[in-house]
Amino acid sequence: MSDDLPTDLLIAAQTRIAAQSSVPMIVTHKGDPTNGALFLKINKLDGTAYVYNQVRLDGERVWIPALSTKASPEKEADRYLAEQIAFDPDLWVVEIEDRQGRLWFTGRILDSL
Asked: For residue 55, with 0-12 CB atoms within 10 Å meaning exposed, 13-18 middle and 19 or more buried, which class applies?
């Protein structure tokens, strides 16, 4: 998948891929269609979630944990994402419901920058 895809097309493609495996992926906040920052909330359906922020590093799309490398309480994840939206309403938030905590988007996961 091209790193040059607009954010809305990237999300649409990944949503279809996850749906083929019966994994729900819901856009909970719609941002700028072409260049909006992208956050993922991976809901493990046990009261915890991972939150990742997509960033570019040397031209490559990579993911960094926004809260912790371990799953955080879901309420903490929701509070963090609400703060980010208040700061930048053009960002996107996609919630993935996956008990296994899989990312479903291409790109490396870094521990930190």
From this structure: middle
Decide: 26 and 98 in contact? Cβ < 8 Å. no
What tokens appear for 92 in the block? Answer: 């996107």
Write down the pLDDT at residue 1: 42
As a whole number of angstroms, the longest Cα–Cα distance in the chain is 36
Q: CB of 70 within 8 A of CB of 40? A: no
Pick the CATH number of 7-101 from 2.40.170.20, 3.40.1530.20, 3.30.1330.60, 3.40.50.720: 3.40.1530.20
pTM for this predicted structure: 0.90
Provide φ and ψ at 18, rounded to 5°: -65, -40
pLDDT in tens, 36-52: 899 999 999 999 999 99
